[in-house]
DNA sequence: GCGCAGCCCATTTTT
DNA sequence: TGGGCTGCGC
């Protein structure tokens, strides 16, 4: 597809069906009784729903009704009697997606979904399968699932035991490596020496092996293992695989572009049975390459599954023409894509705006003014989202919102069960349940502080290893003798007695009550009550929520089983609040008004991403931009700052290349003048550009750069972006000539005085007297 | 064993 | 700039 014509939303594709096909009422589809759910689907959507046999790839662009298709398809398979609910495998990535799908299918066909036992996340389904056949991969079916934190702590021990410099080679890094290996479906045996050399001069594979052995001893799995053990299980036990071939008549995969190699192999093995695999995804929204997702999986689908049918959903029901035009134009700069063009009947609407601001506080000020004016017009805060590239960008917004009392919520961040206090509480519960859970025991043996230090714990570990017993058992042994003395011994003995008492009590009382009792009697809640830190109150709140969450399960075991894989605590009642989140966590969501701040080179696209992954990294960043814009239903507003504080020091910044890639006909450039004087935004822009140093104001106002800026701002681009030079908003064309030359003495608002050391178009290298060497746009410096 | 000062580093996040 | 970790001193 040529990129030029994709800037404009395409007209509706011709309906290629025959007259009789068109006349055919969908509800008369073979075997489908009472197929109300098929009504209102467009031609492509119903094609995707009705094609139930053989491999099918549904390329579902943003806002094209993907979930609807998925759920209708499920309903349709059930309704036509093609399969029982238990014969359909439907996988998603997140619990949220799984839950939504379950609810929506339920809405379509009622009761039957009760029996959709194989609808869930990759991990929960893999865990379910693994529990059934655990022995075949050397585990017991009661295995525990470790989270990242446990994983790292275990790896630290492994690294230490191997006598490797822990500072040079961290547990975190090895955890990331092992994760990436598991994502690729690599067991320690399959690891190339090149991969192994990524850690401690070739010790990677050996440590990986040791770690896996340790996990087996602990009867535990990490997240990656769930899928990887499944692969081993299926490949080493063809009879087991065959059983699942017979079982699953239909496979349904959501967000296929996010699958990693391991998940792909898993799906391919399972699909060998019926060949009825339907994957839904959008290559343009693949933004998880860094955690192992292979866009290639979706690009290659037709080759992997010969005879696969491809259905493209291109009609967008979410956004206006301009939003889609801007997003399509931007994504057209990517090379590796299957190529789709979204279109809509929703013509008109607002163009995407691009606004240049002075710095982050100004950005926050202008955005908050916009939000207030939106709210003043009677619109909801809930309809507004601010999407940033990195969470640190949230700060200036939060500060501003707090100052104004503007209600907001941060989406994402540490999840409920990843919080310190929740993990600690879980560790207590794990110890209650199992006397061999060393990781849990170690975590809480001195939390709250009982006077048991590293030395004591080391002694316990040594003893446990020597006697091949658990830490808890070793503790029992060592406190009987004089190995451990004094305060530590007393404390350990008391602790063991507590555990014994809790275990005895747990037999008779409800699990929520024993949990409360443990937190109380262990001194854990007291520890936070005594803590003066601002977060303590919140932690105590979270512990209350934990008890509440537990109450929703009948037993402690049921609760713990769900904790690691599916538990997420729903936020309380919906307040009317602005949402603040990263672009990544915005995927799948939509908002009438979307703010996209921080579109500057290095910030977005992220420098790190480009450094580490080159063009592929840049393209993923661009997809992220595409995801960002397509979240908007009515308005998308892009911002960039001329200066940004990075790691404490000020840097001048260059507008993101993505801004120049937006098709100009869908963009409005918003700046100070050219707007009515009563416009608050206009005033703000003017203020932002003049605030900091009043003294330098007259100087700057008379500089050529400023005058040119004044002349151009508010002007809308009639033609291609390259035709206007030196506008503050545009990245300068390469050949533009600056009126500054090497050696000129200049003044900059933030950096002070300096001398030009290089001039590349409008980009100047300046050696500032105080601030050091910086690259700045010439529009932001004045002749001194 | 604990608390504090200095040091180092610094995307994106789900299970 | 600021948060998290470490090592040192008590």
Automatic annotation (TrEMBL):
Instruction: List the GO biological process terms.
Output: recombinational repair
Q: Which family does it belong to?
A: Belongs to the helicase family. UvrD subfamily.
The answer to whether the entry has keyword Hydrolase is yes
Give every UvrD-like helicase ATP-binding domain span.
Answer: 39-320
Write down the species. Litorimonas taeanensis
Function of the protein:
Has both ATPase and helicase activities. Unwinds DNA duplexes with 3' to 5' polarity with respect to the bound strand and initiates unwinding most effectively when a single-stranded region is present. Involved in the post-incision events of nucleotide excision repair and methyl-directed mismatch repair.
For this protein, the record's Gene3D superfamilies field holds:
1.10.10.160, P-loop containing nucleotide triphosphate hydrolases, PCRA, domain 4
One MF term in GO for this entry?
Answer: 3'-5' DNA helicase activity
| Record keyword Cell wall biogenesis/degradation present | no
Q: What EC number(s) has UniProt assigned to this enzyme? A: 5.6.2.4
What residue stretches are annotated with the UvrD-like helicase C-terminal domain? Answer: 321-588
Compositional bias (Polar residues) spans? 696-705
Coiled-coil zones: none
| Protein name according to UniProt | DNA 3'-5' helicase
Ordered alphabetically, the record's keywords are: ATP-binding, DNA-binding, Helicase, Hydrolase, Isomerase, Nucleotide-binding
Region (Disordered) residue spans: 1-23, 696-722
**Pfam families, per the entry:** UvrD-helicase, UvrD_C
UniProt GO cellular component terms:
cytosol; DNA helicase complex
Q: Tell me the residue numbers annotated for binding ATP.
A: 60-67
Substrates-to-products reaction catalysed: ATP + H2O = ADP + phosphate + H(+); Couples ATP hydrolysis with the unwinding of duplex DNA by translocating in the 3'-5' direction
């Amino acid at each position: 597809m040529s990129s030029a014509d994709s800037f404009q939303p395409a007209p509706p594709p011709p309906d290629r069906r025959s007259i009789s096909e068109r006349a055919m009422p969908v509800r008369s589809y073979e075997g489908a009784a009472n197929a109300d759910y098929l009504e209102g689907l467009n031609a492509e959507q119903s094609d995707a729903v009705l094609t139930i046999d053989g491999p099918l790839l549904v390329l579902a662009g943003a806002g094209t009704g993907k979930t609807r298709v998925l759920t209708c398809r499920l309903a349709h398979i059930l309704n036509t009697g093609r399969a029982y609910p238990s014969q359909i495998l439907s996988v998603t990535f997140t619990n949220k997606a799984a839950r939504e799908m379950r609810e929506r299918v339920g809405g379509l066909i009622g009761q039957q979904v009760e029996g959709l036992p194989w609808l869930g996340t990759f991990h929960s389904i893999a865990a379910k399968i693994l529990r059934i056949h655990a022995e075949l991969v050397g585990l017991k079916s009661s295995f525990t699932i470790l989270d990242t934190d446990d994983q790292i702590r275990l790896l630290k021990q492994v690294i230490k035991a191997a006598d490797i410099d822990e500072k040079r080679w961290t547990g975190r890094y090895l955890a990331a490596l092992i994760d990436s290996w598991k994502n690729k479906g690599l067991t320690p045996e399959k690891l190339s020496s090149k991969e192994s050399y990524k850690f401690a001069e070739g010790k990677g594979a050996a440590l990986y092996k040791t770690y896996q052995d340790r996990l087996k001893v602990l009867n535990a799995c990490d997240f990656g293992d769930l899928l990887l053990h499944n692969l081993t299980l299926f490949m080493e036990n063809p009879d087991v695989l065959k059983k699942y071939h017979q079982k699953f008549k239909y496979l349904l995969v959501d967000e296929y572009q996010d699958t990693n190699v391991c998940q792909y192999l898993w799906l391919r093995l399972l699909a060998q049975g019926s060949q009825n695999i339907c994957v839904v995804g959008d290559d343009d929204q693949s933004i998880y390459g860094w955690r192992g997702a292979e866009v290639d999986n979706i690009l290659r689908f037709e080759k992997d599954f010969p005879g696969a049918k491809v259905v493209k959903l291109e009609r967008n029901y979410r956004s206006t023409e301009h939003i889609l035009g801007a997003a399509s134009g931007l994504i057209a700069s990517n090379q590796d894509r299957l190529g789709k063009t979204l279109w809509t009947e929703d013509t008109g609407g607002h163009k995407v705006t691009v606004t240049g601001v002075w710095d982050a506080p100004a950005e926050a000020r202008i955005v908050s003014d916009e939000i207030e004016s939106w709210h003043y017009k009677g619109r909801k805060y809930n309809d507004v989202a601010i999407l940033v590239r990195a969470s640190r960008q949230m700060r200036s917004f939060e500060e501003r919102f707090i100052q104004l009392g503007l209600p907001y919520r941060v989406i994402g961040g540490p999840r409920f069960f990843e919080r310190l206090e929740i993990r600690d509480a879980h560790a207590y519960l794990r110890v209650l349940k199992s006397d061999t859970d060393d990781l849990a025991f170690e975590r809480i043996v001195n939390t709250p502080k009982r006077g048991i230090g590293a030395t004591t714990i080391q002694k316990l570990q040594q003893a446990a290893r020597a006697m091949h017993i658990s830490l808890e058992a070793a503790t029992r042994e060592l406190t009987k003798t004089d190995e451990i003395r004094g305060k530590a011994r007393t404390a350990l003995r008391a602790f063991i007695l507590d555990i014994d008492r809790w275990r005895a009590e747990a037999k008779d009382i409800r699990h929520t009550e024993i949990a409360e009792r443990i937190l109380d009697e262990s001194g854990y809640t007291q520890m936070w009550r005594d803590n003066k830190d601002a977060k303590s109150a919140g932690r105590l709140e979270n512990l209350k929520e934990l008890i509440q969450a537990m109450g929703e399960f009948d037993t402690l075991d049921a609760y713990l089983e769900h904790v690691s894989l599916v538990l997420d605590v729903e936020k309380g009642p919906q307040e009317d609040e602005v949402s603040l989140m990263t672009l990544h966590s915005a995927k799948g969501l939509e908002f009438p008004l979307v703010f996209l701040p921080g579109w500057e080179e290095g910030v977005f696209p992220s420098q790190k991403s480009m450094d580490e992954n080159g063009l592929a990294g840049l393209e993923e960043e661009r997809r992220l931009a595409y995801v960002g814009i397509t979240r908007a239903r009515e308005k998308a507003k892009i911002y960039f700052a001329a200066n940004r504080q990075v790691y404490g020091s000020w840097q001048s910044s260059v507008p993101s290349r993505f801004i120049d890639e937006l098709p100009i006909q869908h963009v409005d450039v918003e700046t100070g003048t050219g707007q009515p004087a009563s416009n608050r935004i206009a005033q703000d822009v003017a203020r932002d550009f003049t605030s900091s140093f009043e003294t330098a104001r007259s100087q700057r106002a008379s500089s050529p750069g400023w005058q040119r800026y004044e002349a151009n701002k508010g002007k809308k681009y009639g033609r291609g972006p390259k035709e206007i030079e030196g506008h503050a908003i545009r990245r300068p064309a390469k050949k533009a000539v600056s009126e500054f030359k090497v050696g000129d003495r200049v003044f900059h608002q933030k950096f002070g005085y300096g001398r030009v050391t290089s001039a590349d178009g409008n980009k100047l290298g300046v050696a500032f007297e105080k601030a050091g060497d910086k690259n700045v746009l010439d529009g932001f410096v004045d002749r001194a």
